[in-house]
Amino acid sequence: MFASCICAASVRILTRLCALVLVVAVGFGSELRVRVRLSDGLVTDEVLEADSERDSISLEFKQGDGTLITFVADFKQDVKIFRALILGELERGQNQYQALCFISRLSRNEIIPSESMARLRQKNPQAIRLAEERRGLEQLSMSAAVNLSRAWQLSSHIHNMCSEAREAIYTREADVKHWLDKGVDGSMFETLPHTTEVPSFQACHSTKDLWQPCLCTYSLRLEWYPCQLKYCRSRDTTGKGSNYKCGIKSCSKGYHFTYYVPQKQLCLWDEET
Predict the structure, then answer these.
(1) Following DSSP, what letter does each residue of the chain receive, concatenated?
(2) Mind telling me which PANTHER family this protein's record contains (predicted)?
(3) CB distance 228 to 242 below 8 Å
């Protein structure tokens, strides 16, 4: 399986790209809409939704270039999913949009629990949010492709999140090993040509031939998300102290994905400037 542009753009997805922001997760949840300043200075509406029944959180926003970014944290399966719906360059032979999905393990300290997220409220919805902590860039070498039809074993969210990506669903070798150890069907994964250890392919940004295979990179940043709970201390009438939740800490974090594509045409954003 290799990355590909989607041949026929559905009305549903094109509507999502043109709309401001829509929410992905379904179920019994709570939605929070915040205004966030992106790294390019633009302000976007970000929608966060907590689904307590499925124990998950979704985050979605549109970048300045029109790309729709969606992130889902599945706490039941300890899986995180990133999806990018990228507007195509029609004048260069691309279709109207291209979908990418990146799947990895979720660490418990990355984002607050879904039950805490469901109770979040904001006093001033018009305020423009800036993260309190800017976390370091995470480099991810996505060395395996994931079969969409079998991906339900990893997370029930993948099919809805990544159905448009189909052959552009990627994960890391370390995550594959972890899931195989847990008994996941190995036929779900396909190893891609090397992305590390003296790669035999050039980076796409230095490849001139649009039909040449190369190593593509894609970067995104979650500019604002609730990464940690804050605790305050109080005392009762007897003087006994206790801790209670009194807020959240917000973070910003960037991700840099590297993966193989069979032709540079599938990676036109990754060019020398």
Answers:
(1) ------SS--HHHHHHHHSS------SSEEEEEEEEE-TTS-EEEEEEEEETTTTEEEEEEE-TTS-EEEEEEETTTTEEEEEEEEEP-GGGT--SEEEEEEEEEPPTTSS--HHHHHT---S-TTSEE--SEEPPPEEEE--EEE-GGGGGGT-TTHHHHHTTTTT-EEE-HHHHHHHHHTT--GGGEEEPSPSSSS-SS-BGGG---TTS-EEEEEEEEEEEEEEEEEEEEEE-TT--EEEEEEEEEEEEEEEEEEEEESSGGGGTTS---
(2) OUT AT FIRST (PTHR13423), OUT AT FIRST PROTEIN HOMOLOG (PTHR13423:SF2)
(3) no
What's phi and psi for 17, nearest 5 deg? -70, -35
Q: Which candidate, 144, 254, 122, places its Cα nearest to that of 188?
A: 144
Distance of alpha carbon 83 from alpha carbon 63, whole angstroms = 13
CA gap 53, 114 in Å, rounded: 9
Each residue's pLDDT, cut to its tens digit, for the chain (273 residues) gives 444 444 444 434 443 443 333 333 333 458 899 999 998 899 999 999 999 999 999 999 999 999 999 999 999 999 999 999 998 777 776 677 899 999 999 997 899 999 999 988 888 889 999 999 999 999 999 999 999 999 999 999 999 999 999 889 999 999 999 999 999 999 999 999 865 554 578 999 999 899 999 999 999 999 999 999 988 888 777 777 778 777 889 999 999 999 999 999 999 888 754
Each domain of the chain, given as residue ranges in start order, spans: 29-266
